[in-house]
Every structure is written in structure tokens, then in C-alpha cells.
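--- STAGE predict ---
source: upstream dedup step, 1 unique chain passed
mode: sequence only
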Amino acid sequence: MPEFALLSASGQAANHLREQILNGIWGDEIPGAPTLAAELGINHETVIAALRRLEHEGLLVSQGIGRKRKIVLPESYAPPSLRVAILDYDAPSKGSDYKIDLRHRLVEAGHVPLLADKTLEDLHMDVGRVARFVKKTGADAWVVSAASRDVLRWFADYEKPAFALFGRRGTLPIAGVGPDHVTAGRLLVRRLVALGHQRIVTLVREHRRLPKPGQAERTILEEIQAHGIPTSSYNLPDWDDTPGGFHRLLDELFRVTPPTALILEEPFLFHAAKDHLARHGILAPAQVSLICSDPDPTFAWCRPTIAHFNWDYRPVVRRVVRWADNVARGKEDRRQTLTKIEFIEGGTIGPVAK
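--- STAGE serialize ---
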């Protein structure tokens, strides 16, 4: 039978602080004794005694009076791992460069990425279906790509941590990251207006426009209005979110009052629209300016070059991995960040034809 040891108050405090250090709560330095005493609800002397114990163990190193103690993790230390399930928007997005890199980076950090066998598209972006699928999948945490607000609201309330990779995450208590499409959209509209465009139309998938437009879409409409141009459903049309519905929409748009500029949400929508219009003799930029709000490797092979928003996916991947590290160590992380984005004025944008 193991010997029973009754720990002193400082011994209990040292055990607690040791566990917090090994879980990576504080990073490279531990807070000072007054801060720890207030957080733990114990007296200052007890904290000092606990910190000295950890210094004696070599887990902490003093850096002088008035300075925080440095944390020195043992060579044998291995951070806890996490089973991270990745729920993609659709099947093609699973093979994107940043998703492949994300899975590799998670493995390098000691985590286990799990590729969900269904997508949000398979689940029809339905909260009930998503909930049932998630609850029967063995994962410690979830990365959800380009989800609707209702789906992200459910994940924000779910018992397991979740991360919103893009999607309509604004103001929800959920960690997330994505390019700053709001600022980019505002600058794009100003450029289009300067080129003489007034009939500016944005085409996005259903989850970006319903039940009401997302922040990036609202910003584009507001910026158009700010230039004295009235807006309506013409500028952000509703359509049947299918290939057939998309092509019917294009036919309808160009039948009576054709747009002079089309902003398309995703590369596959851009290519579909460019091909459809070309078959009807409507070419960019002679008859219409075409802009894609995301980058795509295929754009480098297109002539004329494609006007698009460009952003570096590496900061996005790093943010997801940092979140997984924090969650694995028991640290709550619900911070949302934006990454820089730039407008590449390619050959598919130009002044309005006279």
C-alpha cells in the first residue's frame, strides 16, 4: 500500500501550478506571486513557498527581483495531443492546398487530424443533421469550414471546442480566422465606381445571403449606396443553389439590365460564370468586369489574368494549430482574427464599355 502523504498548503499550490505549467497555460513565463495569490485565493507567502519548490525542481528559474520567473520544461516533456475533426464545406475543398497543409501541421504539432466523411454540403447545412453527425464522431475538437451562422451558433454552444475556419462567425463566442473581406470589398467597390460601374452584382452561395446577408456582402451593398447608387435584390440576387440554378440566374441577369461588374464568391463560381458568358458572346472585360473574392492556383494560367482577392493561407493554418495547442493544454481560446488581403487587378476588370 502506497504511503499516504498529507500535503501542506504550499505543496498543494505547487502541485496545481506544476499541472498548469505542463498544460502550457502561461507560455514562457509564470505570472508573479501577487497575481497568482489573487487567482488562487490563497495568501502571498503560500504562493512564494510554492514557487520556490518549483524553482528547486528546475521547472522555474528566477530572473531577478520584480521580474516574472521563466518556465523551463523538462526535455522529456511532450504536449498533450488532440483529435481534431475537420468538417469541410464540400468535397472539392478537402483537397485544397491550405487544407492539406493544415493536416500536416496538426500532425507535426502532435495532434491527430480526422477528416470527416461528410461535408456541410452533404448535410445540407442543416443544424439538426450536423448535430447528429458530430455527436456520433469520435473527436476532441472540431474545425468547421465556411459554415452558416446557425451551424456556427450550434458549435459555439456545443460541449466540445470548435474553430470557425471562415464562415459567418462574427460576434459568436467561437474561435475563428479568415481574410478581411470587409475591407477588401469596400476598396473594390470604390475602384469599380471609379471605372464607371453602377450595375454591380455580387453572387454568393446560400449560406452567405440567407437568412440575411453576411457582413462582407452588407459592406458591398452599403459602399454602393454610399456612392449614391440605389441597391436592391438585383445587387445580391437569390437563386437556387445548384448548377442549373446558377446558369438560369446568369441568363436572367443579362436578359434585360445586364450587370457591368460581377463579383463572384468562389473560384468554381467564377469559372462557371466566365465560361457561361463567353458562350453567349459576353467577354471580360469588354462587356463585363469579373472579379473573384478568393484566390485560386488556376488563375495564373488564365488569359486575360483574373481580377481577384489574394491572401496568404499560412497565417490561417498557424492560427488553427495554435488554437489546437491551446485546447489540448486546457486553455480556453475563443479569439477571432483576420488576415491581410489584397486586390489583384487582373485583366478581367476594366472601365464600363461605352
